[in-house]
Amino acid sequence: MEGTAQLKARSKRKRWSTDSISEIMLYAWTIIVLIITLYPLYFIVIASFSDPYAVGNGQVWIFPKGFTLDGYKELLNHSRIWIGYRNTIAYTIIGTLIGLAVNLSAAYALSRKDLFGRKILTLFFIFTMFFNGGLIPTFLTIRDFGLYDTFLVMVLPFAVGVFDIIVARTFFQNSIPSDLWEAAQMDGCGNLRYYFLIVLPLSKAIISVLALWIAVGHWNSYFNALIYINNQELYPLQLVLRNILITNQMQSDMGSGEAAQIALRLANMLRYSVIIVATIPIMCVYPFVQKYFNQGVMIGAVKS
Amino acid sequence: MSQYTLRMKRTAAKISKNWGLYLLLLPAVVLLILFTYKPMYGVIIAFKDYNPSLGITGSPWAGFKYFEKFFNSYQFEVTLKNTLYISLYSFATFPIPIAFAVLVNQMRQNVYRKFFQTVTYMPHFISTVVLIGIMMILLSPGNGLIGNIYRLFGAEAPNLMGSAGLFSSLYVWSDVWQQTGWNSIIYLAALSAINPNLYEAAKVDGATRWQTVRHIDLPMLMPTAITLLILRVGGLLGVGFEKVFLMQNNLNISGSEVLSTYVYKIGLLSAQYSFSSAINLFNTVINLILLIIVNQISKKYSENSIW
């Protein structure tokens, strides 16, 4: 008869081998995922430095072939890319500032249990997540306010993000102790002063999370510009990108001839380099801010 | 002083005491009223023969004419079918981020895990335009990556982006590629909140890795998963405009025209305002109904619901 000690030892050994197999499989899986995730992006990077003929011919797999900077030089010939860049930077910075101001303050107010009408006000915000007037009425409203084809339409009318407000509200409820307000009140501090001088400095985590969400949203969006902007001088980068990536498709059906060939080659290279140039800023900023994310999302999302 | 006046006075006092808070709320409320609530009135356009020169109130009443027009049109079947198909297909991938989170949670806490997480969250930050651009480049049968792979085997690659039948697969799986890592964050957060003693106890009892997952991880994720699921059902008929619009082309249109893109084309491109609004309203109402139904079901059978 086996004693308990021997039974335990045997099951430990069995567990060990099943567990180490599963561990190997786990790490094998992670490597596959890494490759699937990274390779497309990596390919674009090396292709942007390669001769397009080599790329089209299946010679480019791991390293660039026919190293050339022509694709990047071609970027300089297209001023609309840089106009788009300039516009997107402006929209992102101003849009984020406005978004933070509007959403954080609303979130704080809604986080206060002593706010009269809190339930109704919260419903007022949440309702808009499920129902809105639709594309046409919103378009007509924007036009009637004279905001069509203006800088403002990209940063103001849609600044309210109810999801962001909910997450921020949860943060305020859980991270700002209510006794703090009571103490401040006794010292004669009003709501506004309290918010700006005490709550905000304590809320760096949620401010960075929200700022990042809003900024990335602005950087990557093209829908609002598609609908509400007509003037090419106001186009954001993504809209320019869309034109390049789609217009180039049409160019590839162009006829023959020396000049057309050269133009075609440059057009193809442009697609790679423009993708890289448009995505680099986000890719650079992102790793630095990543730690704030995980923090913020966990605080905000899990609790709410 | 009557009871009523007393209550009014107290309420007024509550409000005026916190006037600062109402001030903080003001910008958001004003923006919502002007640009989200005010357009809601425009929903009426769906029931009228909207004429821009007559304005909303001045335009003649048309009842359900445009709804009928839509239901009887050829596009009704096509758009509804595509929208539902893409939605349900996408919906079916719902468990993937959960599985992803469970697996990541099994990784040891080290540099490799951090690296892995950083890399898999990255695609989320690529813009839709860039994502579709990358897809077009890779899948181009002429000089794309797929073309090269096929030629290695001496074949010619099919034009995947031009296929109506493959549209939904391309749409859904590129979404999985882009969003799985990011979507798993919330599940990872829930998993990290699990009491480690539970794992200790399971280990002592001789549980295998898989058993821990089945009996600890998954049940703890249920509440979060169900809440997110409900929200997703509410958006079932709301296949996003942005991505579909970029992926559409003349070749795949029979498989890629969805409600939202159709609304855009009818409304803003051919200026049939009333018709477009009717379709849009139809879409929104169905979403609301679905949301309510699923919420009620969830309330009945589990503890979770949105309200």
Give a written overview of the molecule.
The complex is a heterodimer of chains A (304) and B (307). With 304 residues, chain A is mainly alpha-helical. Helix content of chain A is 76%, strand content 0%. Chain A has helices spanning 4-48, 52-56, 70-75, 79-111, 118-130, 135-144, 162-175, 178-186, 191-202, 204-220, 223-228, 237-251, 258-303. The N and C termini of chain A lie far apart (55 Å). Residues 249-254 of chain A have low confidence and may be disordered. Chain B is mainly alpha-helical and 307 residues long. Chain B folds into two domains: 3-47, no CATH class; 65-301, MetI-like fold (Orthogonal Bundle), CATH 1.10.3720. In chain B, α4 (65-72) crosses α16 (273-301), α5 runs parallel beside α10 (167-192) and α6 (95-105) packs across α10. Chain B is flat and about 70 Å long. The mean pLDDT of chain B is 86. The interface between A and B is large, with 97 and 88 residues.
Give a concise summary:
Chain A has helices spanning 4-48, 52-56, 70-75, 79-111, 118-130, 135-144, 162-175, 178-186, 191-202, 204-220, 223-228, 237-251, 258-303.
Topology (SSEs and partners):
The complex is a heterodimer of chains A (304) and B (307).
Chain A: H1 4-48, H2 52-56, H3 70-75, H4 79-111, H5 118-130, H6 135-144, H7 162-175, H8 178-186, H9 191-202, H10 204-220, H11 223-228, H12 237-251, H13 258-303
Chain B: H1 3-17, H2 19-41, H3 55-58, H4 65-72, H5 74-92, H6 95-105, H7 111-121, H8 128-139, H9 145-152, H10 167-192, H11 196-204, H12 209-234, H13 241-247, H14 253-256, H15 259-269, H16 273-301
